[in-house]
Amino acid sequence: MLKYPVIMKREQGITTVSPGIGHGNPATALAIAQGLNTKPLIFDGTGVICLRLAHQGMTQVEGLSRLYSEGSEKARGGLGMLAIGLLQLHDFLKSAGIISQPLSPYSDIGIFTQEHLLGVLPAEILTWWFPRGVFLYVPDVYPKASAVAILERLRGVVTPLVWNSDAYEEIKRKGLNPRLVTPVLPFGLIEEKKAGELDPSKVVVKSSGSGIPASFLEAIEKSRKEGQKMEIWLPKVKITVSDQGREEENTPQNIGDYLSSFYQSLLNVGTIICGPSEMVQVIVALNNAGWQGEVILLPPRGKHEVRNREWLIKVAREANCVVEEEVDFNEIKATRIDFSGRPGCFRNRVGERSINEAIEELANRR
Looking at the structure, do residues 89 and 175 belong to the same domain, yes or no? Predict the structure, then answer.
């Protein structure tokens, strides 16, 4: 089981906050914290464990995954949103040490990377615990419908941070006063800041942080061509498949070590196979840093991943990349995007301003 770092004392300055569920939200919190030279609060506990198990079921069982994709906005909104937030609340209060000192400010600034906890906290409490500002960084292309609902309720209290101009314009039209900032994944967690020389024979597969359906895994392994070396990154193990055979090794238990090792493996990869999750942000940043490989997108889970996929296809086509939709990938309907000869497709679609600049500007106004 992955180990998530937990802060048990009150912090001055900036704290990034995420539940220890999956990879996208914790990765974003860790990357922002590293860039700001501060500490993350990746909280865990009984409620988070329950949500993690539910997320694993939704991800690994193909039928449940399909049902979630068809009704994700309903599941994440209304009573579902309230239930998820309440399950997280006790774990957050305990991990942050707030239970023992509920009336004391926790940190000058709080940057959240998932919305549900914000959904059960009154505006007055948030401004008391984080007196210089509260922010929500969106790892996906666009914020989920549940995030938009929470941002509307907390208008003027929580500032959305987005990494692409399309999300910025959409949220701005809603009057939610967003800030456009630079993507933080993957380069926020690795030292290199540009892609390496492409290895066409290297294939890297990224499952969800909660796993992958067995049928998908089987189809992916069967897709390997002779001469290719395929790395399949699952939550607990990395599978390597090559002409020499199949090997399994345990991945690092610490989530930060896991993610930095995984992101490092992408710098020279010829093909990335993944879902249209926060990995879209990763692909965008890699391409802007010079990467020119191909991407195989697995079917989306949830409306937010549908929108991630649609956006990536749209911008890739505008940049004259080869895009093949509904590719039969061993009976999985996938999408193929080839970035060969097309580095920097997204340079005019992402933010250039650092998160530190954006939050300091707003914090200094308080």
Answer: yes
Asked whether residue 285 falls in the same domain as residue 196, the answer is yes
Q: Is the pLDDT of residue 60 over 80?
A: no
- Structurally, the chain folds into a number of domains equal to 2
126: left (phi over 0), alpha (psi -120 to 50) or beta: alpha
141 in Cβ contact with 307 (< 8 Å): yes
CA distance 142 to 157: 20
CA distance 212 to 228: 22
C-alpha count within 13 angstroms, C-beta hemisphere, residue 7: 22
For residues 58 and 140, membership in a common domain is answered with: yes
Domain that holds residue 275: 188-338
| Cis preceding-peptide flag for 235 (omega within 30 of 0) | no
Q: What are the distances in angstroms from CA 82 to CA 117, 200, 203, 304, 359?
A: 9, 46, 40, 19, 28
Q: Which two tokens stand for residue 315?
A: 């911008």
User: Would you say residue 70 has pLDDT above 70?
Assistant: no
